[in-house]
Amino acid sequence: MKIKYYFLIILLILQGNLMSATIKHIDIKGVQIPVIFEEQKTLPILNLQLVFQNSGYIQDKNKSGLVSLSSKLLNEGTNELGATKFAEKLEENAISLAASNGFETFVIELSNLKEQSKKGIELLTALLKSPNYTQDTLNKLKTMQTGSLKRKENDFDYVANNQLKSVLFKGTTLENSAAGTIESISKIELKDIENFISQTVCLENLIIVAGGDFELKEFEKLVKPLLETLNVGKKAQLEEVNFISKKEEKVLIKDTQQAYIYFGSSFNINSKDEENYKAKVASFILGGSGFGSRLMEEIRVKRGLAYSAYGSISINKSHSYFNGYLQTKNETADEAKKLVGKIIEDFVKNGVTNDELSAAKNFLTGSEPLRSETLSQRLNSAFTLYYRGLEQDYSKKELEKIQNLKLEDLNSYIKSHNEINNLTFSIVRK
Fold this sequence. Notes:
With 430 residues, the protein is of the alpha+beta class. It has two domains: 40-227, CATH 3.30.830.10; 248-429, Cytochrome Bc1 Complex, Chain A, domain 1 (2-Layer Sandwich). 46% of the residues lie in helices and 20% in strands. It has helices spanning 2-18, 66-73, 82-92, 117-129, 135-152, 156-168, 182-187, 190-200, 216-227, 276-288, 294-302, 333-350, 354-367, 375-387, 394-404, 407-415; strands at residues 22-28, 31-39, 45-53, 96-101, 105-113, 206-212, 248-253, 258-266, 309-315, 320-329, 424-429. The strands form two sheets. A six-stranded mixed beta sheet has the order 1-2-6-3-5-4, with helices on both faces. A hairpin with a 4-residue loop joins strand 9 (309-315) and strand 10. Helix 11 packs antiparallel against helix 12 (333-350). The termini are far apart. The relative contact order is 0.16.
């Protein structure tokens, strides 16, 4: 009875938090721009994200590092003011303005006090009208990026992870690092960045995510002049990343005291699959829960082979996969690798126990409200659901499904994903 009462409270909290974002559309030049918005009166602020979909480093194609370099250039001010004077303008008005990119999105974020909102929009408009497209700027960014990549050559976690991607995602746009390589960065020209930004920063790709001390109509009036300066453009197409993992291994020998072991496999699900809640529970039990997870329990607690061991199922619109990692002594690398394979194999064959399922339910239902405490968290959640084509009450329904999940149904689901056994290993060791 207490558990049911506790769960009811959680659902009521979620209903109040996760349903607070409003989703509507603004017509700009005949394009219906989605606006994900939450009014919050407690803080006199504006938080605005221009999210350009299907435009992350998945669009690098044959120019690895292009999208990353493009977002960095937008952080270098305008052509008229340059980086330093533009940064001074932002600082004078306590305005934060930055561009970034992920797998599938290219994002420009503006944050400021409400009283500085007009100034913030003016500076963002100026930036998008006239980015600092100069050869000197590009040369500086390429030098910085190259230096960063050289330093990362001795970051063996970074090296092992990138090596895993190069094998697991071979032949796709994800086989290279988002940061690119020293060779690929050297080949990127100013016109490449201009073309990417011109094609990406357009109305057809845009989703607006915003919140703060504004009524929706007030916010619309504020941002319309900015939006009207953008080109209509052409909607970028998101290509599926098709890959099939194989049982293979790539070892890189380095002068290191530890062996860095990264592993991954296919996990054949769609981002809109109604059964993805089962993947969430399975992922938590297998390697996402820290102490108590299968990987941590077997590798650290029982055998002391590593300080930590982690694994998770990553779900994206373009692709989904399982991946994990651990560090161990060079002399125990082979043992640890074999053990990972055995743990995964046993997980698929025999599933989970009732105790593991109960612990997962308690944690996942108990922690979910904490993920919607802040405006930023709620907006991010609302955007993620919208972007994946899910209803805004999906999180509440997902919790209900998790709470009602039966052991036999979860184990049947796990058993149906035998592809996770096709583990690809990337190892950096001495």
